[in-house]
Sequence to fold (1201 residues):
Amino acid sequence: MNLGLGDGLHSCVQCGLCLPHCPTWRVTGDESFSPRGRIALMRAVQEGGAPVTDDVADSWDTCVLCRGCETACPSGVPFGELMEQTRDTLAAAGRITPLWERAALRCLAHPGLLRAGTRVAAVAQRVGLVPRRLGLPRLPLRPEPMRASGSDVWLFTGCVMDAWQRDVHLATQRVLEAAGYGVRPTGDRAPCCGALHRHAGLVGETRSLAERMVEALSGDAPVLVDSAGCGAAIESYGRLLGTPEAEALSARTYDVQEWLAANLERLPRIEADARLHERVAVQDPCHLRHVQRAHQATRVVLAPYVDELVELDDEGLCCGAGGAYSMLHPDLAGAVRERKLAAIGRAAPDVVASANPGCSMHLAAAGVRVAHPMSLVWEALSATR
Amino acid sequence: MGSVPAPDDALVSELRSILGPDGLRVDSAERALVARDASVFDRGRSGPVCFPRSADQVRAVVLAAVRHGRAVVPRGAGTGLAGGAVPLGAPVVVALTRMNRILEVDVGARVAWVEPGVVNLDLTRHLRPLGFHFAPDPSSQQACTIGGNVANNSGGPHCLAYGVTTSHVLAVEVVLPDGEVALLGGLDPEPVGYDLRGAFVGGEGTLGIATRIAVRITPDPKAVRTLLLAFDSTVDAAETVGAVIAAGIVPAALEVMDRRITEAVERYVHAGYPTDAAAVLLAEVDGAPGEVGTGAERIADIGRAHGAVSVRVAADDTERAALWKGRKTAFGAVAQIAPNYYLHDTVVPRHALAEVLEEVYAIAARHDLVVVNVFHAGDGNLHPLLVFDRREPGIMERVLAAGSEIVSASLAAGGALSGEHGIGVEKRDYMPLMFGPDDLDHQNRLRRAFDPDCRANPGKVLPVGHSCADIQALERVPTGVWG
Amino acid sequence: MTGRSAGAPGSAGSVAGAGVDREVAAWAEEVGSDGPVAAVGSRTRWGLGGRLASGTRLVSAPVGVVEHRPEEMTVRVRAGTPVAELHAELAASGQRSALPERGGTVGGALAVGESDLCALGRGPVRDAVLQVRYVSADGRVVTGGGPTVKNVSGYDLPRLLVGSLGTIGLIAEVLLRTQPVPAVGTWLTSLGVDPWAAREVLYRPAAILWDGTSVWARIEGHPDDVAAERSALGRLGRWEVVEGPPPLPVERWSLPPGELRTRPAAECGPGWIAEVGVGVVHAARSQPPRPVPAAVAELHRRVKHGFDPAGRLAPGRSVLAGAPGAGPVGGGR
Fold:
């Protein structure tokens, strides 16, 4: 089968240095669940004419797309691109992403539908019908509306996060306002970034969502994102669509921590004793660390507002959330999370700061106290006001 | 990819009952993947792939293989560069990656018990808060397993001062090729009997499978100084190395990289490696503050006297780590030059380094090949990487011919065939260049004492005609055996 | 360099097997291929492994330092050379080896495999041998290991030979790793200091000895570092500079270093001196034979049989002599 893979396939020298940075290899010890193995299978299929057996498809389908292997790779193998392209081909051939999954993903682009569903879930939650292990945050029955306070920056609100974690967006908006920015939430005009569609190999949907974003968010204002996964997706629009407008949007999209770290002097200072009396462990979402490579900013922004920042000792290994991954591959995701939980246990923080909604829900489902960095900063700032 | 076993295959059902459904894979995709390691050798054939979680399971797997007349090949992370873990003749592959627990750390006695699948760097990370580390630090240490280190007697940059793996392994619990379990060596300094531990380390999986390893842990040095010296010629760098050792300094590491590899590395790590120098020498001294200070100064002086155009001392741990990350990922970084590489890791006496290096460049030029050099200069351990694109017709023959000439040049200079990567299958047939028939015969006797029936990783280390090494036969799958 | 003359007898085309010198070749002739034979050095540890069968012919290995290359930190030496003589020659270049200087020969020290009193700092004897040339049971010269400081080509015959008591091959010549003699070195002693506390504060001591009450420490290195180590020790108690280690009782125990706190006092009898961090205990009483599991004993039998099928090398002597469970390991007679 021609997977449509380009020269990037040949930049892998099989050294295997990626293995320990791959969450699925870490928990299986199995070459099929490693980046090197996945690339070797791509070669075998595209060039050696090997059949795409269920085992081969499973090898590719179980990749979290955390892209931890990319930062570990001295050869610069564009693993994310290879895997996305492979999944596009497989999805087009109907080998991955079943119809129910496609239908669910389609809902993400319909805010009304998503809100209605969320209200149903919120009610169900209150009568005890939603198991805690799913990790859903406490859903609001009537979410506080978001209102524009100016037009200095866009705040990308997205789909699921807006429906389920509106409080994080509100905190982010208030922190930005405290720094003197007029904030315009993107809201329904740009309902979804398409990151999950991309993971699922639905390249057509991804493109149309991206085009809709590019059109809706025209102008020069920076687009700030408080979801690492969405930020990484928008930053890849240039490559995905190849238009000057898309390139421009990608170029002015920033993770909100990254933006604030570069403008730290605009944030109000607080006294040392007004800091949050918490020991905060920073969990680096993969798409912040390995794709946007902006994870240090989280520390820079948090440091003035909390008593103590601690590092996890797992070198940024994925937590297993991976967008919808934790729902599609619960066993692997759970095993991967165990490693993260152990690392959190060793760091013994009061709270874990995560700049990605998927990670925070996945970890919260295991009983970890998780907060978005912006929520923590706002908590500290609002207490001194 | 080979055929898939019948669902009622007796060996497969036995293995499945030992390992559970989750612990065995027989599908063609998986078997194709474990038929490779990090070397270019691609004629491996794997049988069932086992993922034991305990020594008991390893033993049961070996006994099942014995009953069915199948050979057994252990595998760690598959980062070997000589094809040591490549299965020949569709044997049972035993992947030890799930036996990855650090069982016990005794700081007082300076020993840690680990399972073979523990990743080398994970052990050091685990020891870091205690002020200790595991000294062998092969460049693949972020990925390679300690079981693999034992099999290969792995080295690494810091083995110049600290010694290779065998100096850091106190005891090994081994499942022998006949399924017997033996503890070789011991925590006491002079265990009774032959040093079978010493014989086992570096056995490349042909003497049995390690299931539990006691390693020595080393206190972190009190002081470290890392220097980066740039030279206008590789020869100057090599001569500096000889002069440093001759001056009675034993640095922790002395590493040389030539310009091409330095450029590739710098593009990946951005550590500030000078990309305009013909060669850089990365030198590290560690230990007590006094010796470190003096050692660093003397190395800088010796370097300047041998034409170093710049000498930079790493200012802090971050800078030091960045420099080392560059050195340790160098092999991977060559993909920026070409997608394949082939290398030998011969050792030459230090006094012959400069001369052999020039010969290496000349050999590559004669074969119209690109060669980059990145090597453990302090112990004379060369790593000339011939980089190429194997899709180019006829190039593999040129690469192999050049490789062979490099081996001959190194041995003619009084060197050794492999400093740390091992012999595996790739260098097996060079063994007669280094050893005479009687020498090989005695190595064979050692192997056969452990493995009289040639069941453990056949086809490795010893050349054809000696032991369990008939590659022609092994490349075909035995009749009646799926694979 | 001797190792470079190609085409030497017995091993056409190979490099490591080449360059067997005339004395070694002559010794191989002397050993021959028939009749019981054993190598004899200075007989400092002659009784180890049991009494030789009567009628065993004794042969002495050739003598002399073949080549010392200070810049390679290696020395090629014939096995009959006294260790003291070797060290005297190395000292001229500011080097030494890890072999113990106890009045014996190089070959004897290696065949016995007991490390130096300063093994904590200098490493065990088994790590000192890079290449070994030995005469096999059939009278041939066999080379194991490699000519360079680092080598993993093939199986590790040098380590197998170290401590083999001459039962699988007669060591004729070795290439040893050398090490620089430290700039400064001193022995210190103290009464009542906890030896583990001393071990804790010292970075790389060459030796720490303990007899249950007194501690002796050997510290070596750069003058500044030795001074720093001395003051670190000073914080533990009063130390006095002494000429050397205390006289050692003749028997040698091998215990896990983690068990030294209690076992010597309980088991080794009066007058013991323990090497802290190493595990060797010097005592008047001998160590009871250590049990050997059946699988390990069987491996020993196969090794011995593989290297000496007729059992002509040091008959009567066994590396497992007296070990419970070992059974006969010595060869066929």
Residues 338-412 of chain B form a domain with the Alpha-Beta Plaits fold (CATH 3.30.70.2740). The longest helix of chain B spans residues 395-412.
